[in-house]
Amino acid sequence: MSKAEAQRLARAMVQYTVTKRVKGQQRSLKMRQLMPVYWRRLIEVGVPLQNAQQIAEIIAAYDVLRQVPSPYQLALLKQHCRYICRAELWRPKLLMVD
Could you tell me if 23 and 58 are in contact, meaning their C-beta atoms sit under 8 angstroms apart? Predict the structure, then answer.
């Protein structure tokens, strides 16, 4: 590999890393924007504060990152599913993970 090819490869790797970092920051920004909205909706329909925060985080992570909930998180979602529906935050595929 010539020196010019090595430099091009190094630039491409740096560009890839920067692009990946920016996309990750955009995703986390999107999650930070969605979580308070979801949390407020859950509080308005009667979910306890602590559970509302956890559920909002689970649903936001699913919406933005397509992150599958853990068994504990699934149990929490199932426990509060009627409130999640009332808050219009229901995601049909979210519980089909079992």
Answer: no
Residues 6+ apart with CB under 8 A from 59: 38, 84, 89, 91, 94
In tens, the pLDDT along 66-95 reads 888 999 999 999 999 999 999 999 888 776
pLDDT, tens digit (0-9, with 9 covering 90-100), for 17-40: 655 565 556 667 888 889 999 999
CB 98 within 8 A of CB 74: yes
What the block records as the tokens of 86 is 């009332």
The residue type at 55: I
- Using CB atoms within 10 A of its CB, is residue 50 exposed (0-12), middle (13-18) or buried (19+)? exposed
**SS3 for 46?**
coil
- Residue type present at position 9: L
Q: Please, what is the angle between helix 49-65 and helix 71-79, to 10°?
A: 120
